[in-house]
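[Structure tokenization] protein backbone as discrete codes

[Encoding] learned vocabulary of local backbone shapes

[Begin record] amino acids and matching fold tokens:

___
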Amino acid sequence: MGITQKEIAKNLGISYMTVNRALNSNGYVSDVLKQKILKYAKEMGYEPHRASQVLVRNSTRKLALFSSTLPRYFWDEINKGVQVAAQQLKAFDYEVHYHRVPELDTQAYLALLEQEIEQGVEAVALVNQRMYDIDAVIRRIEQAGLPYVTFNIDAPESKRCTYIGSDYSAGGRLAADFIARTLQLSEKKEVLVLQCTEQDLTQAKGPNINNMRLEGFLDLMNQSFEAITVHVKYFDTKLQAEEKDNQILNLVREYRGKVQAMYLIPAFNTDFLQALETVGVHETITVLHDLDSTALYHLKTRLLSAVIDQSPTLQGYYTVMSLEKILESKQQVDLPIIRIDHNLVLTENRNLIHGLSAARLMS
């Protein structure tokens, strides 16, 4: 008996499904890798099993997505979109796994990825997050011959097939435009911007989305609203590990009455809103990113003026559908980037925006 497809995959260090696709012309495999597989199979005397060829497309096709765990409310929204797409594809024999990897644990990330490769995953989606060695993750994906996409945070220098997500600089510009226009009639025009230092990630590579937001915010302020004074104040990332301290509270307390607007850039919404409640900030424009249940509530109470929302539910949905499209194309394909526009969520439109993503998924 000649060599089997599983033996070819093991010997070449790639996934079984990649070998299967190459030998049966069933799904995407890069030309270079396909030729390598075909050459090796011929040298080793591989003979296809007719029954397996007939059954190949009747097997379940597996997709896998990877992200961090925090902030939980954001990835919960991503998961809603993932599950809607997974349910729609279930009838077509697709299985979707979404993994949330503990922060700063690249080994756990690689172990989960290896498990998916061994179980026959055919396409992967990942977030280019600074808290992992994403270069190592991408190398393993490419070594296994798997097509992949990025979502939420892009890796444009990689071989990803597409990106599904937002322009973070645009999110900062939208926040600046809202604050500046709201303060037009104010006698004093000063803004407190709260940013984090990411001290635990000083060696990290890849995009810093919080810096992108800040750059977009400051660019628009400098270009179009020079009369507004911006105070950028930093706190460290210990809150990310759920340690309780008073950094945000102290900054809000220090600038209460000194500024007419406060803008939170990183994802510490709960701490920021608790600080606003504790200090008793009134008649101050308050803006943050991402729409969670607490933000929705405080839009209603008007403690919060606006939320810059990037529609995570749609990101999750379109990411899964992009992976499915790549596999069904049966050839190498680079899809157009799917850019998710930011929504400006106010008290008046909060219910409409909150239900908009679900409505779009069902349409």
Observations:
- The mean pLDDT is 90.
- Residues 5-55 form a domain with the 434 Repressor (Amino-terminal Domain) fold (CATH 1.10.260).
